[in-house]
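Worked example 4.2. Below are the chains of a multi-component assembly; read each line carefully before continuing.
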Amino acid sequence: MGKKLVVTALVILMAVSLTGCFDAREIGDYAYISMVGIDEGVTDELRLTFHIPEFQVSGSGSDSGGGGNSNEKEKAEKEVITLDAPSLLSGVSILNNSVPKILNFMHMKAIIISEKMAKSGKAGKVVTGLMKYRQVRGTTNIIVCRGTAEEFIKAFHPYQGGLITDSIEELVTRAEYTGFITNSTFMDMYDRIKSATSQFLAIYGSVNDGKNLKESRSGEESDPESRESGEPEEEKPVSQNEGYGSGDKGRFRIPGDYLAGETPVKGGPDIELFGSAVFDGDKMVGTLTGFETQMVRIAIGRLNRAAFTIQDPLSPDLYIPIEVKEFGTPKVSIDLSGQRPMINMELKLEGDITSIPSRIEYEDEEKNRILEQAFEEFIKTGLERTFKKGQELKTDVFDLGQVAIKQFLTIPEWEKYKWKEKVLDAELNVKVDFIVRRTGKTTSNKPAK
Amino acid sequence: MIPVNKGGAALMLKFLKKLFVYEEPSSSDIEMGYEFLEGLEESMEWGEKYGAGKGLKNDLKEQKDNKKDRSGQDEQAGSECRADMNDRESKHPKILIPKPAGKATVRKSRKQKGNSKAEKTETRDSGKEDYEEHSRKVSKSLTENLDYLRKVFHVPKNQDVVIREFNVAHKIPACVVFIDGMVETTIITQFTLPQLMDINPFRGFEGGCALDFIEKNVLPVHQVERMSNFREIIPEILSGLTIILIDGCDECLAMESRGFETRTISAPVTETVVHGSQEGFTENMRTNITLVRRIIKNENLVTEFITVSKANNGRAALLYIEGLTNPRIVKEVKRRIESINVKYISGSGMLEQLIEDKSFMIFPQVISTERPDRVASFLMDGKAVLICEGTPFALAMPITFFDLYHTSEESNVRWQYGTFMRLVRLIGMLLAALLPGMYTALILFHQEMIPTSLLSSIVVSRAAVPFPTIVELLLMEFSFELIREGGIRVPGVTGNTLGIIGALILGQAAVQAGLVSPILIIIVAVSGLGSFAIPNYSLSLGIRIIRFFLIFFGCIGGFYGISAGVTILFAMALSMKSFGVPFFTPVAPYASHNTDTIIRAPIYEQKYKPDYLNAGDEIQMGDEPRGWKAEVKQEEQ
Amino acid sequence: MLKEGRFGYKEAISLIVISITSKVFFTSASFVSRLVGTAGWYMTLVSAAVAALFFAFLYLLLKRFPGKNIMEINDIVLGKFAGSLLSLVLCAFLMIIASIDMREFTEVLKVFVLPESPPSFIMVIFIISVISLAFAGLETLVRYSKFLVYLLGAGCIFVILLSIPDFRVYRLFPLLGNGLGKTIINGALRCSFYGEAALVGIMAASLQGTNEIKRIGFYSIFISGLMTSLCLLSFGMVFPYSTAQELVSPMFAMAANVHLGGFLQHMEPIFVFLWNFGSFIEVSALFYSAIMIYCHVFRISDKRPVILPMGTLLFCLNLFPKGIQDVFSAYVQTMRTWGWVIYFLPPVIVLIIAVIRKKKGAQRNG
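Applying the procedure described above to all three chains together yields the following structure tokens:
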């Protein structure tokens, strides 16, 4: 009897412990997908592109740089897999039969959606449906890319060796430094697509193979983008050239007034993230250039630092680069009493002048004021332009819904008011206050003798 | 059927019985709650294990034959034990009588200060029949006594015992009996025999028993004692005293003459400190007691000698400060030791195991220390200390977990450094217990919780390893433990170098061979270092065992399993009591205490003694311990 | 033989605070969002106030019969039979709540942490820990909770602090949520969130006087109300109400969203630990109280043989709900909305009857 009891106890113990490793998998058994691209599929609903990095010791990764691009291209081919599947889950399970490791999304950093998918609205639905999937984290970035996601992922190599996940993170964090993109995450997308308060801005990216760096100034716009993408009916990129001041036509561009893929850059990494894609609900309705995205960031109070170059007000041929920081969030007051909402925005910005090519002494009081006013005008125009564009696209790019909601007491009231429609008629008044804080290493500027 | 070890099966069976079989509540279910010495029931439980009736028998054959008889005798003795308890109860109505279930017992105050000095201590005579044989009185005839002694000591086979016969004052036959090598011969040769053999001192002697006269007028030895029962005399001879037997007297004189070789006082081996005293205990009990007395020069410091093992005639010294230490502790310790019925106790280690509350627990309930300054601070706190012959360790009880965790160094340095050291040690302890388990859980179950850059390093380093994680980890852990064990045995300088170099080289070689991943080496090394940081040897061993337990749980269920493992561990550890004091006082349960558990306040702010000991005098220092500061303040005003 | 022993007020407060606050880590937070929108964080304060009111009644009852626990009071006031029946109802209720909490825990764990383990495996490990804590006795349980309470509180605050970069105050607006009336009614109904304060009544024999009981009850409700409100406030600022009502465990999602640079990301481990420890203690407290009531009613002095069968019973109760949907919508919400009837109403009724029948407990000296 005693022995029987003991044996029973032991058996129970073993049953619990030895069968217990249900979830235990060796860390090397997994293949960690770092990026997923979603395109329109030909043979099936979706065309999925997975990027599965091969982990290497960080030293040896960069040695392959000796082989140059070819080596990287080979690596890219091994790491990037494309397939057609009806959904993400089926795609993964189909692929698991050819990749020896278990695929999972635990360390996925970015979801790339092609512009076409985004515009049709399907991407919004498919991606937000992923919310239930445990492996997809809320902090995954969402990137809308011009062209196909497959190309984008193929062209995305880790810079100077290292891990691709680090590269992605770094690129997106760069938004803090430049302001040209928003830091859009999966959680943001889910929240904003479904909310009555704000709309979603995704990061806009593209492959840039350096053809924008034109060699000669004269010459027609050869429009290399349409050649690249291979789709003849693609729209021309909407990048207006509204620089003020006289100057030659086409000569002064507002800095950053490009979309991804248009920046005149050659060499270096093949892809770039620039500008934003604007969503209204599930559908993408338009894009904002980099400059306009900066304006958005200023308006919502999330501009940490940015670099602007404006025309020198007293010598319009030359430019003055200014590094700008935001000084607190903008004060926005919204008046909802009338027919159209009246929005008053007051901003405070501060900046450092980094160089004055014209050698005009802007450090002294009077000229300082001129400079400040010029900059304020610049920002104001930019903000109004961006807001108007947003209204045309039928969206509230400045997230003004977040301010308006504070005037309502209960949720049903707010939802009845339908802010998203009302904001399209709204009028925006902007007042910018810019202060030059520092002028760099030199405090005055004497003309050359 | 799976062959199960008998001893293990018995243990299991007992445990399962507790689970399934209903027990009648014992009669002494009374004293509840937060005070130590929880109840006579616990003492009883303990008494059943080691007390009367469960003694070792000399004759194995007898054991086998009288199996039935013995169980009957056990019951009887057990019931005797209980009868004693009930006896005591009825004599002291202060102890509440249990009420039937359904009514709560009302208690008046939280603590009952023990003022039960009136309770008698019973000497447990039953079960000690074996050792009663020497109970024979000294006879007046010298030859009878000598014959008896020769028989007992197996002289002339046993050539250690020397019996030197001589005549006192040229007339009365007498002899000295001693053990060669244990006595300091000068005492006998210069201070006993000449004086006794000489006629001159005996001028005023009238006749009759010479002992009185000798003791008072002749013998210039500093410490003598009169004894009349061989039961006392023989252990004294064996300890190194010299016996003088005189014809015509029915008593004898025992002279203090111990002079055997002992080890000199050297630095403590297991508990080294940088900024404290460098004296440690030795194997000799008298030296150890002296070391303590040099630090505590308090007239209330009492040393009681208790006999521990009869066959060995061993003694233990119980030290406490009268008026400070709660007498219930002293009583309980004495009761436990006196009821030990073991033939041979080699030293404090065995003694510790015989008197602790629950030997199943993984943490020690009695602290053993090698340093007299720690012993002194324990005594001044109100603990009782046992010093045993044979090992250079002293035992102190009751203890809490924090006594195991503190060292004496922290009180010797300034409070910032003391706090810093304690924090480092706490982190080390947590690392030692938790790190391998957490690593296993993280790697096997929760890969998504690792930052991605760390993940890639781990994957890369594990790529070449042929074993699964858990096998690799256990392999490395066992190798580390082996190195540690081996390093102890290798003598001298080579021992230390083997430990360090061996670990490094082995680890490096294993990594190069592709057998383990470098990350694992770091994990195992860090957790090993953490366990080195634990000051108390028993505690560090306990933590090492806990580590394996937690690895098992981490392997089953990831972080969830580790939480479950920690819960089970704490369920056991927190229910532990050391002589009635809950183990994790003063954190849980809360007791008022100085700011001294982890962060140490400056010395002058630690005013109170530990609350849980219910010591006689709670305040450790006056209102203004730094008198000079008070003077400065006055001057400023 | 298990002794309940005695313990001080700090330990009791930590036990009750942990029991109450662990529940915020589960699914209720999203239900709250569904019911009252953005007003969750002060709705819980309303619940706390109502619970404190009910506790006052319990306290008055306990004060009338000093030194006795609620089972004995039931016996004295209502007579043996009715009193035992009432106590047994409470016992059954506690078992059911314990099993529902355990099942909720298992389901959420399966969703987030161990997706492939069968639920019975998770539950077996849980039950083993609960049983070992129950074996060790009530004193050990409260000591354990005292030991951990600072750690858990610090961990909770740490998670909240780490989420601060994600806070957007606008998400708390509109302030009144779905309407003030709804907030107050729901708040009042959901006071059974703080129902564990009624455990004080069951443990009353081990506490040290009715002053202590007053302190313990009110402080624990106050502290847990604050903590819960803080947690709901912070996750209300991280998720807008439209998303919050859909998440399985909003607090967990909040911890998962922490992303401060390359290293401080994927912070769920902290959270998993907090939540596991809290749940173990909570379910053990409920389980042990149920056992205490049972043993009192049937006059069993030695609890140990009862623990194992009750544990098995708990395990079987766990298997009732079909799946996660059942657990959330049906069981948890029913219990949360109507639990106060069994937690808080009986002491009120018993108090009224005691006043009517003029029963009083013996006064103690000192």
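Take a moment to check your reading of the output against the notes. The radius of gyration of chain B is 30 Å. Residues 52 and 80 of chain B are 9 Å apart (CA to CA).
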